[in-house]
Amino acid sequence: MNLMPSLAKLSVAMLLVAAPVWSASIEVTLDSSLQSAEPGDVVTFTGTIENTGVDTVYLNGFSSTFPLGGVDDSAFFLLPASLAPFGTASGPLFSVMIPGGAALGLYAGTFNVLGGDTPTSFDLLATQTFAVNVVPEPSSALLALGGVFALILRRRTRS
């Protein structure tokens, strides 16, 4: 007796009667994922969180990575605690503090939304990357440019 055809029929029957499993599904879009800032500045990232699923999704938390630290998620908790199917929430999502002594350069980070199908879920729902380009403050750049100009004038007057 060959059991393979019976097992195959049983597998197909189980697939046909199995109920679909729905999980929370969101998309995060930042208005600008790259911003420039001077050392000592606070940069606020704004955007939209959209529920792309057919069930209510609960926005229960936030985590992030950023090499300079200083991510403030208090704006995230001003958003609705949940989104209805195909609902959206827009506004400030988080802020990043650039330390006063930060070296000039490009720093990348990630913004993670945690939540799920219940008010107590803390599954990773979405990850969005962002970056901050730390640039010199204009007064420092003007001072340096003025110094270079003074050196050029001084050399010309000695000649």
Structural overview:
With 159 residues, the chain is α+β, with helices and mostly antiparallel strands. The chain contains two helices and nine strands. Strands 2-9-8-4-6 form a five-stranded mixed β-sheet, with no helix packed on it. A four-stranded antiparallel β-sheet has the order 1-3-7-5, with no helix packed on it. The protein starts with a helix and ends with a helix.
Q: Kindly report how far apart the N and C termini lie.
A: 107 Å
Query: What's the overall average pLDDT, rounded?
Result: 84
Name the overall outline.
Answer: rod-shaped
Largest sheet: 5 strands, mixed
**Number of H- or I-type helical stretches:** 2
Task: Output the helix-strand order.
Answer: HEEEEEEEEEH
Share of helix among residues? 10-25%
What would you call the structural class? Answer: alpha+beta
Low-confidence blocks of residues:
10-22
Strand order of the largest sheet: 2-9-8-4-6
How many strands? 9
Fold blueprint:
Layout: H1 4-17, E1 26-30, E2 34-37, E3 42-51, E4 57-65, E5 71-72, E6 82-83, E7 88-97, E8 105-116, E9 123-134, H2 138-158
Parallel strand pairs: 2-9
Antiparallel strand pairs: 1-3, 3-7, 4-6, 4-8, 5-7, 8-9
List keywords for this structure.
single chain; 159 residues; 5-stranded mixed β-sheet; 42% strand
What's a quick, concise take on this entry?
The chain is of the alpha+beta class and 159 residues long.
